[in-house]
């Protein structure tokens, strides 16, 4: 599943090709995605310019003249910029045409989304899908002491395990399953610890770990940027070298204790029972 780093790398990959370009046509090949793709798009978008491409959580926000296009990659979606003459492929769902280029959403399992937020409905941040998202991990609001504050304040009185607290994304967005295990290891915190029992120094280490782990994943994806302009590119996951994730029974890279796997909320968590304390 594309996580925040993959979506951010997608944004970095497509932006230089599309910024300032005018949409010439939109074709909806199969609009039955997570929500129906608005059938009005082929009428509304042609003639409008892509002014900028932003990201909020795992949503790409394409800013056009009269509103924002929200694109989510769901479970299996990819976005690619291709020469327009390139043939469509099975599972291509929507194609946006720009003179000689196409932006294509390819989504075999159809959990992705393409939605339109017109300016007349107010700022895109007010969109119901974006409104309740946690803070962006790389925003000034999550930098330094502020990130510590957010984790500390939002976790008070929460009895849920810190792993699930992080994964829920209500405090800070983008910490998917792999990144949860890696961040908690980096911060030396046991994944089963009640979120409400985190100390302030632990919140400080965790906020720093989240920023570090996500930044590393985005940097690792940077090498795949060229893949956004060909149809076969598959950047996949960027966490090339995990310290605990998917390493059950293998020696901890710090203390050699075999890594433990547990299930929390039906998802796997990996940790070192020696390095990570409750
Ligand atoms: Zn260890």
What does this protein look like?
The protein has 278 residues and is an alpha+beta fold. It has 2 domains: 128 residues, MutM-like, N-terminal (N-terminal domain of MutM-like DNA repair proteins, Alpha-Beta Barrel); 132 residues, Helicase, Ruva Protein, domain 3. Helix content is 27%, strand content 20%. The chain is built from 7 helices and 10 strands. The strands form 3 sheets. It has a 4-stranded antiparallel sheet with strand order 1-6-7-5. A 4-stranded antiparallel sheet has the order 2-3-4-8. Strands 9-10 form a two-stranded antiparallel ribbon. Strand 6 and strand 7 form a beta hairpin. It is elongated, with a radius of gyration of 20 Å. It starts with a helix and ends in a 7-residue tail after the last strand. Zinc ion (ZN) binds next to loops.
